[in-house]
């Protein structure tokens, strides 16, 4: 399997049998190999991958992004071994956490704003689908206000929009949900600072220690070139992976525009994920 060690010759004395034996991989690697043969891959699979260039991921401390100064570690990190609690529990599946894929209405009453469909595929760097991943989504309403008591932005709340969803990827790593296009909002990071329209994503693996968070943006937004959070990822090609693409195949005639947002979890082509 690509990425795993090839056969390693054993040390032997001259004249001894030159029979070779395959090196026994670590248990985690054997588990990954077995999953690969069976076509099963999850966020937790310990499959070797090419580590990303640091420029393709946002740093812990970004000079222009004020709150990172308060949240990022000031001292060297301590390595704490994960226990089974962090790596294997809880199991995030639809039987325990029911899916909710339509944010465009509450109790049958439609939310204000432009209805949209967001769909995509979650894979690893080699294109292997990540099946059964729980995807949490949250966003502001069409006026740019979150359904949260701490958001006191002077914009109207919509009683028919709660701004959160939960979906699971299928066997091919696909997901989709319905929402309304969020609005921009001020955030006081600097003078006249406005966040571009965006949707938050949280991906859950096999336990608490396997959660990845990112943001999806929309094409053509003039605020992208002014936003310290979006610009905190140095590499432009990596930043562009955070911008969704209009997709006519996802679009439903006379009902909603469709946007595609694919996510890659590991490797050089990984989607930028937040660390703080």
UniProtKB/TrEMBL annotation:
The keyword Kinase does not apply. Residues 1-77 are annotated as: Disordered. Coiled coil: none annotated. Residues 49-83 form the Protocatechuate 3,4-dioxygenase beta subunit N-terminal domain. Residues 1-22 have a biased composition (Basic residues). InterPro entries: Intradiol_dOase_C, Intradiol_dOase_core, Intradiol_RC_Dioxygenase, PCDO_beta_N, Protocat_dOase_b. Residues 25-36 have a biased composition (Low complexity). The keyword Oxidoreductase applies. Keywords: Dioxygenase, Oxidoreductase. GO terms for biological process: 3,4-dihydroxybenzoate catabolic process. Residues 90-267 form the Intradiol ring-cleavage dioxygenases domain. GO terms for molecular function: ferric iron binding; protocatechuate 3,4-dioxygenase activity. Belongs to the intradiol ring-cleavage dioxygenase family. NCBIfam families: protocat_beta. This is Protocatechuate 3,4-dioxygenase subunit beta. It comes from Falsiroseomonas bella.
